[in-house]
Amino acid sequence: MLRHIVMWKLQAKDAVQRELDAVAVKAALEGLRSVVPELRRIEVGRNVASPHSNYDLALLAEFDDFAALQRYQNHPDYRAASAFVGTLCSDRVCVHYESAGEA
Q: How far apart are CA 22 and CA 47, in angstroms?
């Protein structure tokens, strides 16, 4: 199994707008669950501690292998969601690692 972890910083400075943007990003990404068959698991969470030094949002997605991740990243719905998220975020970091699954 391949795990795909991404974290973002939101651009908005206003707290209300940041909350709206976080909800929109979560909905856009988690909506991929029903349209991208390669996506085995997806979870998007909002940071709850140290907001000034931590990233605002994190995504955990799981795929059977790297080829499945590549198909996901080429899926038109993923591309649209990714472009949308990019309009709301100022910074992004990502890591991929292989996992044996749940312990």
A: 10
- What is the mean pLDDT for each group of 10 consecutive residues in the chain (103 residues)? 97 93 97 96 93 91 97 97 97 94 57
Q: How far is CA 66 from CA 43, 51, 74, 103, in A?
A: 18, 32, 12, 21
- Nearest in space to 29 (alpha carbons), one of 83, 97, 93, 94: 83
pTM: 0.89
Cα(17)–Cα(11) distance, integer angstroms = 9
Domain ranges of the chain: 2-86
Contact, 96 vs 31, CB < 8 A? no
**Is the alpha carbon torsion for 54, 44, 21, 38 positive or negative?**
positive
Question: Is 3.40.190.10 the CATH classification of the domain at 2-86?
Answer: no
